[in-house]
Amino acid sequence: MGAQVTKQVDRRKAISVEKKTLYSLHESSGTDFPGSTYSPADRKKWMAGLGPEKMHINKIVWPGTHDSATNKIGIPGITRPFAQCQSLSIYQQLVRGTRVIDVRVQEDRKVCHGVLLTYGIDVVIKDVKKFLSETESEIIILEIRTEFGHDDPPEFEKYLEGELGEFLIHQDDHVFGKTISELLPKRIICVWKPRKSPQAKAGSPFWSSGYLKDNWIDTDLPSTKFESNIKHLGEQQPVTSRKFFYRVENTVTPQADNPILCVKPVTNRIHNYHRLFIAQCFSRGIADRLQIFSTDFIEEDFVDACVGLTYARVEGNT
After folding, report:
1. Which of 38, 144, 215, 225 lies at a CB distance of 3.0 to 4.6 Å from 232, suitable for a disulfide?
2. Close Cβ partners of 175 (under 8 Å, ≥ 6 residues apart)
3. Alpha-carbon gap, residue 161 to 117, rounded angstroms
């Protein structure tokens, strides 16, 4: 018992030190970067606002959400706080400016986060289609994966193609060098990551797992996650040289051996440092690697930061 108490005390000290480390970096370095003062006139249509004919797919800084379809997961006030990473519906996130959606499913096509369940994938599809019907030039990256420990939904590709086929941008390395206007009226890059089923191949309506990569680490320590993100991003090629999307997640994760297990208070340790991260990418000479930037509980300022940097790239100011 004494050893456990000591361990908890040490962990609380480590968290406190790391929070102070990020705060000090924020105070000493600032958060200015090219495009940092830009704010889109309409977040729902920010890609249209920047000019689809000027925006190459590989130069967009894509605002994304982590565990996107968890707004109604679990039981309210009981299990939901342990698994909820977003408070908005998929449609509301897209309207706010999100352009990368991260969805996990199990065999019966229910969306899940670990052992907790929420609505079916049909709710996600309905929200996506509603958003697409209200816009003309917004491209979405829709990542769907089979959750760890679960089996793939049967005939899932057939189901997705039946629902989204008219919007799907087929797997093709040439897409990265194209502009949005060159891909329209197709609107969705759907990355399907099954656990046991075969991976999608070139020319398929779906993109295989190798086209959306990240280096996720399981930690609730904010400075550790921040520096890990910087390190792994720095190991990537510039966006103009890659034929895959690379994601950085501005999140930290509750740990089973820590008294604080609810997502929101834990992820808040890093949540407000998205502008600091982008500014540090410039300071450390790796801003040309940044591409997908995801977060929990996405807010307008996070979207504005990503759109601002995209604007700077489009205008040649980076």
Report:
1. 215
2. 57, 169, 183, 189
3. 24
31: confidence class by pLDDT, cuts 50, 70, 90 = very high
- How far apart CA 59 and CA 291 sit, in angstroms, is 7
**What fold characterizes domain 29-314?**
TIM Barrel (3.20.20)
Query: Taking a C-beta distance cutoff of 8 angstroms, is the pair 302, 308 a contact?
Result: no
Peptide bond into 185 cis (omega under 30): yes
Q: What sign does the CA torsion over 69, 71, 76, 77 have?
A: positive
- Note whether 57 and 175 are within 8 A (CB): yes
Split at pLDDT 50, 70, 90, the class of 260 is confident
Instruction: State pLDDT tens for residues 266-292.
Output: 999 999 999 999 999 999 999 999 999
Q: Is the pTM of this model over 0.85?
A: yes
Cα dihedral: 96, 102, 106, 110 (round 10):
10
**Amino acid at position 159, single letter:** Y
One-letter amino acid of 33: F
Measured distance CA(127)–CA(129) in Å, rounded: 5
Q: What angle do CA 163, 166, 171 make, to 5 degrees?
A: 100
Reported as a single tens digit per residue, the pLDDT across 110-162 is 999 989 999 999 999 999 999 999 999 999 999 999 999 999 999 999 999 99
- Alpha carbon distances (Å) from 50 to 138, 139, 153, 273, 307: 11, 13, 38, 25, 9
Size of the chain, expressed as the number of residues it contains? 318
The span from the CA of 299 to the CA of 114, in Å, is 24
Give the pLDDT of residue 188: 98
- HEC string of 5-70 equals HHHHHHHHHHHHHHHHHHHHHHHHHCCCCCCCCCCCCCHHHHHHHHCCCCCEHHHCCEEEECCCCC
Q: Which residues of 43-81 are buried (b: 16+ CB within 10 A; e: fewer)?
A: bbbbbbebebeebbbbbbbbbbbbbbbbbbbbeeeeebb
